[in-house]
Design a protein that fits this description.
This protein folds into two domains: 240 residues, no CATH class; 124 residues, CBS-domain (Roll). Strands 1-2-3-4 form a four-stranded mixed β-sheet. The protein has 374 residues and is an alpha/beta fold. Helix 1 packs across helix 2.
């Protein structure tokens, strides 16, 4: 979903990250507020005043989205749902769950927390605008607070549309899940609503473009396409998790993989191991002890001229939680680790000893076979 990310800070135990796409939307919001929204509502101020209001308004929206997602994360933690972080991107923000909620109640409580937080922020900023206006603090201050009150209200209302993966769609899924006891069927229905709503937004975007509203039309169209794609992917991901939830890494791993010594040169690795076996990743051993992994991608990051003097130990990835997995862990856990660490293969270990290698393509092949066989 995301591209390059910047870690901003840690809040209440959660990492808050900024996707580079947020820079675009922050600039767009600041420009729209400074050149259109605020001058139209509050005429007569200098351009610098409007730009100050626009930048502060965009920063307030940033803070509001972080608090919205933080409310999801805090409730998720209460129900034992791991959250890897909060990321702000071009379409808003997301609390990144590592697995689905354990119960319909947990899903409902986590989903409803966001809109409730936005409603609370809307009321807070509304009261702040009234107080500042009564105290004579000036139109620019009360105007920004009034905007933040309005935008948080819009965020709360929009997110409560019963279309997955919006918060309202998750509330809808929780209700269906609670009634039927079937999370997959509930996700299908909620995701279908999300796809329909996404297509409606695309239609709204096309209508806006035809009527001459270029930015608004493009924005609604992009949001609609994103929601349509996200809702479709949600059901695919959940069905995959259900198909793989009973399968352990041992089922799909390659046993007794070819290993390489840590003290050979990269040139020896290429000539005698990579070209000799056509494998892409190798466990690295040092005196019978597993110490890391090295692959073709690691060689691309080094100069060919250095292959004759650099050792495998110089270019390998040392053993860590990101490139290893226990032989008894589930394949779903392996997929999550591959996604987080950017690896397509993991070393399978048991009590510190190498047992095998599990590859993404082998897990995908197992998944494909399970789907074909029903």
């Amino acid at each position: 979903m995301f591209g390059a990310q910047i870690k901003l800070f840690r809040l209440a135990g959660f990492d808050v990250n900024l996707d580079v796409s947020w820079v675009f939307i922050a600039l767009l919001i600041s420009w729209t507020l400074a050149t259109g929204y605020f001058p139209q509502l509050y005429p007569g101020f200098e351009s610098t005043t409007y730009w100050s209001m626009g930048v502060i308004g965009a920063a307030g929206l940033f803070l509001s989205i972080v608090l919205h997602e933080l409310s999801h994360s805090v409730v998720a933690r209460r129900y034992g749902i791991p959250i890897s972080g909060i990321t702000l991107f071009i379409f808003g923000g997301v609390a990144q769950m590592e697995r689905e909620p354990p119960t319909a109640r947990a899903e409902f409580m986590m989903a409803i927390a966001g809109p409730l937080a936005s409603l609370g922020l809307s009321l807070f900023f509304y009261l702040g605008a009234i107080i500042m206006a009564s105290a004579g603090a000036g139109t620019p201050i009360s105007g920004v607070l009034a905007y933040l009150a309005l935008i948080n209200l819009i965020v709360a209302i929009f997110n409560m549309v019963p279309a997955f993966p919006l918060d309202g769609g998750r509330v809808y899924r929780a209700w269906l899940w609670g009634r039927t006891g079937d999370i997959v069927a509930a996700t299908r229905r909620a995701a279908m609503a999300g796809q329909i709503f996404g297509l409606m937004l695309v239609g709204l975007g096309v209508a806006s473009l035809i009527s001459g509203h270029l930015i608004g039309g493009l924005w609604w169209g992009l949001i609609g396409l994103f929601l349509h794609s996200a809702s479709r992917n949600a059901i695919t991901q959940l069905e995959s998790q259900k198909l793989l939830e009973s399968e352990t890494v041992e089922r799909v791993m390659t046993h007794s993989p070819l290993t390489v010594p840590a003290n050979i040169t990269l040139r020896d690795l290429v000539d005698n191991y990579i070209y000799g076996s056509f494998h892409e990743t190798f466990p690295v051993m040092d005196g019978g002890r597993l110490v890391g992994s090295i692959g073709v991608a690691d060689l691309r990051e080094t100069s060919k001229q250095a292959w004759g003097r650099l050792l495998v130990s110089d270019a390998m990835h040392p053993i860590s939680a990101l490139n290893t997995i226990n032989v008894d862990d589930k394949t779903e856990t392996a997929l999550r680790k591959m996604r987080e660490g950017g690896h397509s293969r993991l070393l399978v270990v048991k009590n510190g000893r190498l047992e095998g290698i599990v590859a993404l393509r082998d897990i995908m092949r197992l998944l494909s076979l399970k789907r074909e066989l029903g």
